[in-house]
């Protein structure tokens, strides 16, 4: 059934991630502390969604007379957790490839609007939050020509947007905007969520860094998303910055050089 294949896929992903990290990143993680941090993160971040998937599937298959709404709750829990594992696996595999220097951006002349809008399809607001969390996309009417790896830029927006959603626990809104100035294109992702303390802001882009606020609120995460964002932006000759106030919200802005030739219409 769909449920069982979800389970199988999740387990395969978990194993692939564990293997890839075990083999490929061991060299880079030379200190015991880094290894401990990795093992802690992994065991928690893999176990939590997997435990939830296994539990939900057991309930679903064990009780054939379950009410339809209860059944659909459990199904959406399974898919949410499988998505979380998938996104984590993608981040970890990207990072492993970057470490191996196997990854360089595949840059082509593209309309940046397409890369930004692709993330809209990829990030889903969890069903139980649809009523109180609005996500707005705002892109120019004209093409925005950049020389970029569109899939990598999509991942940048994906990671920033997933964070904006995750770290806006109550009702709120998230704005993804694409704007241009004379030489640069700017992608900004703004939320009115929990915000980030000033002392945390300069560490955000480090691998495995998570703020204590994030941990206190038990928001799931690995501390890898922003380190990947930073690497991708740097590989494009771009810049990233964060403006944030605790309790008010955060805005992450990515500047990418514009291609000088206007894309012909
Ligand atoms: P993760 O979300 O998996 O923990 P990231 O590297 O994406 O890892 O983010 C690092 C940390 O930065 C997060 O743990 C969180 O504390 C903080 N953070 C990132 N984005 C936001 C945001 N939009 N609002 C508040 N805190 C954020």
Automatic annotation (TrEMBL):
The keyword Ion transport does not apply. It is an enzyme of class 2 (transferase). It is found in: Cell membrane. Its EC number is 2.7.13.3. Keywords: Kinase, Membrane, Phosphoprotein, Transferase, Transmembrane, Transmembrane helix, Two-component regulatory system. One of its GO terms (molecular function) is phosphorelay sensor kinase activity. The chain crosses the membrane at residues 1-23. Residues 41-260 form the Histidine kinase domain. GO terms for cellular component: plasma membrane. The keyword Secreted does not apply. It catalyses: ATP + protein L-histidine = ADP + protein N-phospho-L-histidine. Its main location: membrane. This is histidine kinase. It comes from Nocardioides piscis. The lineage of its organism: Bacteria, Bacillati, Actinomycetota, Actinomycetes, Propionibacteriales. The chain holds residues 247 to 511 of 511 of the full protein.
């Amino acid at each position: 059934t769909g449920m069982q294949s979800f389970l199988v896929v999740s387990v395969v992903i978990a194993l692939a991630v564990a293997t890839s990290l075990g083999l490929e990143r061991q060299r880079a993680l030379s200190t015991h502390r880094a290894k401990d941090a990795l093992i802690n993160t992994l065991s928690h971040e893999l176990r939590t969604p997997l435990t939830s998937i296994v539990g939900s599937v057991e309930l679903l298959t064990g009780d054939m007379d379950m009410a339809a709404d209860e059944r659909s709750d459990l199904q959406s829990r399974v898919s949410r957790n499988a998505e979380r594992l998938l996104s984590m696996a993608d981040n970890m595999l990207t990072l492993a490839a970057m470490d191996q220097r196997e990854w360089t951006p595949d840059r082509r002349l593209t309309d940046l609007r397409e890369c930004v809008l692709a993330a809209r399809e990829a990030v889903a607001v969890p069903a139980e939050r649809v009523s109180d969390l609005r996500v707005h996309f705002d892109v120019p009417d004209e093409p925005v020509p950049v020389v970029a790896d569109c899939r990598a830029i999509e991942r940048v927006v994906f990671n920033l947007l997933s964070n904006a959603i995750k770290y806006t626990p109550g009702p709120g809104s998230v704005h993804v905007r694409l704007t241009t100035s004379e030489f640069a294109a700017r992608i900004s992702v703004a939320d009115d969520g929990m915000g980030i303390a000033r002392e945390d802001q300069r560490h955000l882009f480090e691998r495995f860094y998570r703020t204590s606020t994030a941990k206190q609120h038990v928001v799931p995460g690995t501390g890898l998303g922003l380190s990947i964002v930073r690497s991708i932006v740097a590989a494009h000759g771009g810049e990233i910055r964060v403006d944030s106030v605790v309790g008010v919200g955060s805005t992450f802005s990515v500047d990418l050089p514009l291609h000088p030739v206007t894309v012909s219409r």
